[in-house]
Amino acid sequence: MEVLETGKLPNHVAIIMDGNGRWARQRGLPRIEGHIKGLDSVREIITVTRRIGIPYLTLYAFSKENWSRPKDEVQRLLELLGLYLEKELPLMMENDIRFNVIGRTSDFPKRLVRQLNDVMTKTKRHRSLLLNIALSYSGRQEILDAVKAIIKDVKLGKVKRIDEKRFSTYLYTGGIPDPDLLIRTSGEMRVSNFLLWQIAYSEIYITPVLWPDFREEAYFEALREYAIRDRRFGGLKEV
Ligand code: FPP
To answer: CB of 35 closer than 6 A to ligand 1?
Structure first.
């Protein structure tokens, strides 16, 4: 496979899955149909990521701001998430995939929180792929939560010196390497409060493809583009 031959795969891919609503509207369908179709893309992208050996994948599934959508859409999305967890647990068990949630899940109905915790517990020893799902997530909130937690530890005398490395361990993603590649579907040129600290040096790839149409081929296109990018992390090009 061409993309693998380059030998330069990202270690961590983060994706803003956007465009489900537009996909449905273009077909005269209710928005929820776009989310349902979007789940097929979620499954395919997870499967491909695992197959080609990228060890970290983070998907933005529900932002803190998404709570302001019509009640009915929010409820259907939460239902979908519950169904997804039920259906996909075997895939995670068979493929050594560890499921992890980042965000304020305490905002969710208790039954769903129990389900999320259950899947995290059952998959916690898996090592081939760490799948992070961002739920009720806000990058600014994450940074504030980290600031509050670190202040607490400073007061307790557990932290003497605050530097970038130490601070990042207080984020929801503590211990997880920063994304090398951030993909956004549906053409919007925004970061939308996603992983604000962690994407400082990520390569950004924006495709007009809507999330329900974002499948293996579109993903490989993003990975091929990543493979030819010249990452300098603010330094100079090697000569
Ligand atoms: C963006 O499309 C998508 C979302 C807000 C939800 C993404 C959720 C899923 C793909 C399903 C659930 C996910 C998991 C991991 C179980 P949009 O509604 O903002 O589309 P639009 O911008 O075209 O309106």
So the answer is: yes
